[in-house]
UniProtKB/TrEMBL annotation, chain A:
AAA+ ATPase domain residues: 68-360
Protein name: RuvB-like helicase
ATP-binding in keyword set: yes
Source organism of the structure: Zootermopsis nevadensis
Protein function: Proposed core component of the chromatin remodeling Ino80 complex which is involved in transcriptional regulation, DNA replication and probably DNA repair.
Keywords: ATP-binding, Chromatin regulator, DNA damage, DNA repair, Helicase, Hydrolase, Nucleotide-binding, Nucleus, Repressor, Transcription, Transcription regulation
Predominant place of localization: nucleus
From TrEMBL, chain B:
Species this protein is from: Zootermopsis nevadensis (Dampwood termite)
Family: Belongs to the DPCD family.
Protein name: Protein DPCD
Length: 463, 203
């Protein structure tokens, strides 16, 4: 009986757990208390107390929304939680504040110039809260049906049946819509609203008629009445759109649909000027409100001198977002020049930034992080195996140790164990080389590899 | 009165007209970026199509909103439109004949006894209900609103045929009068054989 129940629980979980586990999926916030004091282990964050506190202060500044065009640099060695802090800030800001995340190398695209890519990123990070009349669908979910084509390739086909007290309609779903329904974990009995133009789904709660389905009810489940009347309504809603979205809607050649395909190309400067004027007008009339957001540029040393000088200028604009950058470089060459500079960023730009540094984790922090990751990756690990893994993290790198978690748990499952033990960790440690052992290995067997440099040097010496 | 307002709006609008395929096509441009297109049958002078397009508040051109005639067809991929009614879902198309205003609701397979069609003067519309709770629709009547009349129950008739519910509303004298005046107005416009459109002065 108990076993049957356990199996059932497992099944339910597999249906609902659709998100994949990413490198930072365990992070839910910065883990600060009301006085902005960091708690040692909280919301998936561990250690880095000063950096987290600094991020908390920056967060307050962003939330107030008054200060434009500040830049913050997160600097630290690889694997010290720079990206994690940025992700935590994004989580803490919530969905109504635009947060754009990009890697420095993303700007090198053949489709558009570097400055265009940066401008788009900046404009994606400024939100405009505006009242708009949109068509929404509001109803109780009767059924969601998603079919994969029999061949296994091609788009999925989805159907959603919604009802009100008076009517029932079947809708066809696009792929994006299917994904967001899955992500929101919408199921039969939920009352939802769907914005027809943007596809945004919000779950209002569960229908009262389903109040007796105990398995689908969590502690925070809210019960609502099944909506009345027609499924589709026109409603005035206040929502946040980014300046970039307004640009795209207004650039004649692309239209609204370009937003979904992501293929927007370059946008003319005149269009942007018009939009800026329009937004300023709305703001004066009290129709709209500016929500400055955050632009996060990871691996910022990949930008070149042209981008840096462009950023210098862009940050002075009063419509600029708060820019957070992260780098793991020390004093190095600025891309596109022969000059060296701290973090590979020109001094004049550095001068405009506040720098938050992250420091290498201590042993006990490493252990906490590994423990959190074990939980996130659904892996039971014995205490001594965790200690060994912590040592590995200390001697090689945190990332390498994290890689060993799932691999070790797979090895453990193959030998039908319940808990990862030291042997499993040793096994994967010998199976997978870390960076320093690999280097060591290469040094020893250099001449047996093809095209190795040493041979070349010898040949040159001979010539 | 309301009908004068509408007439004045039509008179003030920038209009272009062309005759093509036996249809008189009129394009109106109203002041705040609003457009309307009408098509009249040249022989009978009956309106066969009327569509509206408004700029959304964020700018950019919206979609044509068809008031009379068959709805615009979409050839967009389902991935581009995100969500839409399945092709088997009921849809409404409106028509105007010499004597009545008509609604045709297609893809409604239920027998005639299921439907109830009531005039609701409070919300200025006609409401279609089904006893099996499968379909519900409030039908606005812009033509009545324009002349300032409220819907009356005894002018409504409905039948069901070929999966289609046909509702007809007897055209009041006032609507008839307004249509006549507008037609006179339209016939004053110089027509051309080529495709013309009002210049978009507000752009």
């Amino acid at each position: 009986m108990a076993a049957a129940a356990a199996v059932k629980v497992q099944e339910v979980r597999e249906v609902t757990r659709i998100e994949r586990i990413g490198a930072h999926s365990h992070i839910r916030g910065l883990g600060l208390d009301d006085g902005l004091e960091p708690r040692h282990v909280s919301q998936g964050m561990v250690g880095q107390l000063t950096a987290r506190r600094a991020a908390g202060v920056v967060l307050e500044m962003i939330k107030e929304g008054k200060i434009a065009g500040r830049a913050i640099l997160l600097a630290g060695q690889p694997g010290t939680g720079k990206t994690a802090i940025a992700m935590a800030m994004a989580q803490a800001l919530g969905i109504d504040t635009p947060f754009t995340s990009m890697a420095g190398s993303e700007i090198y695209s053949l489709e558009m110039s570097k400055t265009e890519a940066l401008t788009q990123a900046i404009r994606k990070s400024i939100g405009v809260r505006i009242k708009e009349e949109t068509e929404i669908i509001e109803g109780e979910v009767v059924e969601i049906q998603v079919d994969r084509p029999a061949t296994g390739v091609g788009a999925k086909v989805g159907k959603l049946t919604l009802k009100t007290t008076e009517m029932e309609t079947i809708y066809d779903l696009g792929n994006k819509m299917i994904e967001s329904l899955m992500k929101e974990k919408v199921q039969a009995g939920d009352v939802v609203t769907i914005d027809k133009a943007t596809g945004k789904i919000s779950r209002l709660g569960r229908s009262f008629t389903r109040a007796r389905d105990y398995d689908a009810t969590g502690p925070q489940t809210r019960f609502v009445q099944c909506p009345e009347g027609e499924l589709q309504k026109r409603k005035e809603v206040v929502h946040t759109v980014t300046l970039h979205e307004i640009d795209v809607i207004n650039s004649r050649t692309h239209g609204f649909l370009a937003l979904f395909s992501g293929d927007t190309g370059e946008i003319k400067a005149e269009v942007r000027e018009q939009i800026n004027a329009k937004v300023a007008e709305w703001r004066e009339e009290g129709k709209a409100e500016i929500v400055p957001g955050v632009l996060f540029i990871d691996e910022v040393h990949m930008l070149d001198i042209e981008c840096f000088s462009f950023l210098n200028r862009a940050l002075e604009n009063e419509m600029a977002p708060v820019v957070i950058m992260a780098t793991n470089r020390g004093i190095t060459r600025i891309r596109g020049t022969n000059y060296k500079s701290p973090h590979g960023i020109p001094i004049d730009l550095l001068d405009r930034m506040v720098i938050v540094s992250t420091s290498p984790y201590q042993e006990k922090d490493l252990k906490e992080i590994l423990k959190i990751r074990c939980e996130e990756e659904d892996c039971e690990m014995s205490d001594d195996a965790l200690t060994v893994l912590t040592r590995i993290a200390l001697e090689t790198s945190l990332r390498y140790a994290i890689q060993l978690i799932t691999t070790a748990s797979l090895v453990c499952r193959k030998r039908k164990g319940n808990e990862v033990n030291i042997e499993d960790v040793k096994r994967v440690y010998s199976l997978f080389l870390d960076e320093s052992r690999s280097t060591q290995f290469l040094k020893e067997y250099q001449d047996e590899f093809m095209f190795n440099e040493m041979e070349e040097e010898l040949m040159e010496g001979a010539a | 009165m309301a009908d004068e307002q509408w007439l004045e709006m039509i008179q003030k609008a920038e209009k272009k007209c062309l005759i093509q395929d036996g249809k008189r096509k009129v394009h109106y441009l109203f002041s705040p970026g609003e457009e309307m297109v009408e098509e009249y049958n040249c022989e009978t002078d009956v309106l066969i199509r009327r569509a509206w397009r408004k700029k959304s508040s964020l700018g950019g051109e919206g979609q044509w909103d068809v008031e009379i005639g068959d709805p615009e067809e979409h050839f967009l991929n389902i991935d581009q439109v995100l969500i839409k009614e399945s092709s088997s879902a009921p849809f409404v198309s409106r028509r105007i004949t010499k004597t009545s205003l008509e609604w045709r609701i297609r893809n409604l397979p239920y027998p005639l006894s299921v439907y109830s069609v009531t005039a609701e003067p409070d919300s200025k519309c006609i409401t279609v209900r089904t006893t099996n709770k499968k379909y519900f629709k409030r039908l606005a009547i812009p033509d009545l609103e324009r002349v300032g009349l409220l819907p009356e129950q005894d002018k409504i008739q409905f039948t069901h045929n070929h999966n289609t519910l046909i509702i007809s509303y007897q055209k009041p004298q006032k609507v008839y009068g307004l249509e006549k005046k507008i037609l006179q107005e339209i016939k004053k416009i110089k027509t051309s054989k080529e495709d013309v459109q009002c210049t978009k002065s507000n752009r």
